[in-house]
Design brief:
single chain, 453 residues, alpha+beta, FAD/NAD(P)-binding domain, Elongation Factor Tu (Ef-tu), domain 3, 6-stranded mixed beta sheet, 6-stranded antiparallel beta sheet, 17 strands
């Protein structure tokens, strides 16, 4: 009989996991609770729906996010090619038309005969083998069952999504197209420039605006890497100007000078009919969003396709609950995605891929995957499963959690380039010993820039 794995969750991690298992001849029953059990932050019942930003971050090979993408390409990732096929202009980042991307993932799942998609909520833990990739918006019933099984209290944080505006309502006599450090007005972003006076007036209204959740509660539970713009603004008048609203590398064509501050808008789809306010995750009430965000130069007449929203994201205390492969010991159950506390879209895809490889290894009696901690993904797994990680908070891939170099390098650019070179060499050395799990020729082509043999 063909072996079958239950995968719970039709998000990024669950879909990647299901596709990887099916391509290795393993049957998959993929459960997705929507539309019947739709979470508040979801807008559709599509697979792999991107709830917050539509950006999958940097493609620079010497950045942590770019290195992670390289590693996933070497491992044979299923979803990254679909993201690139549905990409929208975003400078040095990989951003997607979120609806086209979701449709592409759904088509890939539907075309795989070994995947059965079941549209119903799972409220109890299944018998193994199973992968729980229910995401940070896991249903209350399933998360309660998971927490009881783990014997550990769950952790949680708040996450926030940015507003999206109608492109036709952006004043293009003010907002200008330009990517940072590009002289010509052909950039991938639209930029809304502030004068000093405009910015300070906007900042004051932003920090004084009405919010959905009390400030004390925000201070306690907000995830530091995804704070609402108004929370960042409360840290000081220049906090946003040195963060998401930094004007460096941009020149306002009306003045020929760098603006005092800039709000960047990123295309939501290939047709560029909608734009996302970059870095403007928010917890303001909808009426306050309309009032305050229309103070942004160029958005004075903006119509909002979607206001920013805030929702609770849940995750488990992975370092004390899970083993080094995110499995619940002695259960046949494995977790994947943001429910493990690995934060970020591409990180979720990566954890789904790893869950598939390790589940397949378990079924076939093979050695489990143990990626080098000198790479982006290996270091993230090491951080998230190390019992010494206390207190445990969600983490993106970053060079700060990668094992340091043997020598001190003062230049950040040189240091990151060395991190990247070492990571690729170490990963290739490991994957060349794992022909039982991956296509070594493809890994060599990706990591050494050589053609497939």
């Amino acid at each position: 009989m063909r072996q079958t794995v239950t995968v719970i969750g039709g998000g990024l991690a669950g879909c990647e996991c299901a596709l990887q298992l099916a391509r290795r001849g393993i049957g998959v029953t993929l459960f997705e609770q929507r539309p019947g059990g739709n979470a508040p932050a979801h807008k559709t019942d599509g697979l792999a729906e991107l709830v917050c930003s539509n950006s999958l971050k940097s493609t620079r090979p010497d950045s942590a996010a770019g290195l992670l993408k390289t590693e996933l390409d070497a491992l044979g990732c299923a979803l990254l090619p679909l993201a690139r096929a549905t990409a929208v202009p975003a400078g040095g980042a990989l951003a997607v038309d979120r609806h086209a991307f979701s449709d592409a993932v759904a088509a890939a799942v539907a075309d795989e005969p070994l995947i059965e998609l079941v549209r119903e909520e799972v409220t109890e833990l299944p018998e193994g083998p199973a992968v729980i990739a229910a995401g940070p918006l896991c249903s209350e019933a399933l998360f309660a069952a998971l927490s009881e099984k783990l014997g550990s209290s769950a952790l949680s944080f708040f996450d926030a999504a940015a507003p999206i505006v109608d492109a036709t309502t952006i004043d293009r006599s003010i907002a200008f197209a330009q990517s940072r450090y590009e002289e010509d007005a052909v950039g991938d972003y639209l930029n809304c420039p502030f004068t000093k006076e405009e910015y300070e007036a906007f900042w004051q209204e932003l920090v004084d605006a009405k919010r959905v959740i009390s400030r004390d509660f925000e201070r306690r539970d907000l995830f530091q890497a995804c704070q609402p713009a108004e929370e960042i603004a409360r840290k000081g008048v220049d906090a946003l100007r040195y963060g998401a609203l930094k004007p460096v590398g941009l020149t306002d064509p009306r003045t020929g000078r760098r603006p005092w501050a800039v709000v960047q808008l990123r295309a939501e789809n290939a047709a560029c009919t909608a734009y996302n306010l970059v870095g403007f995750q928010t917890n303001l009430t909808w009426s306050e969003q309309a009032r305050v965000f229309r103070m942004i130069p160029g958005l004075q007449d903006a119509e909002f396709f979607r206001y920013g929203v805030m929702h609770r994201n849940s995750f488990v205390d992975a370092p004390r609950c899970l083993d080094a492969t995110f499995a619940i010991p002695a259960t046949g159950l494995r977790l994947a995605g943001q429910i493990t506390g690995t934060e970020g879209y591409v990180e979720a895809i990566a954890s789904g891929l790893l869950a598939a490889l390790n589940t397949y290894a378990d079924l076939r009696g093979l050695e489990r995957v143990s990626l080098p901690d000198t790479g982006a993904l290996g270091s993230l797994v090491a951080y998230a499963t190390n019992p010494e990680t206390m207190p445990y908070q969600p983490m993106h891939v970053n060079f700060g959690i990668i094992r340091p170099l043997d020598k001190r390098v003062r230049s950040k650019r040189e240091r990151y380039a060395l991190y990247t070179a070492r990571a690729k060499d170490d990963l290739l050395a490991y994957l060349e010993s794992r022909a039982d799990l991956v296509d070594v020729a493809r890994a060599r082509a990706v990591l050494k820039d050589q053609p497939d043999e």
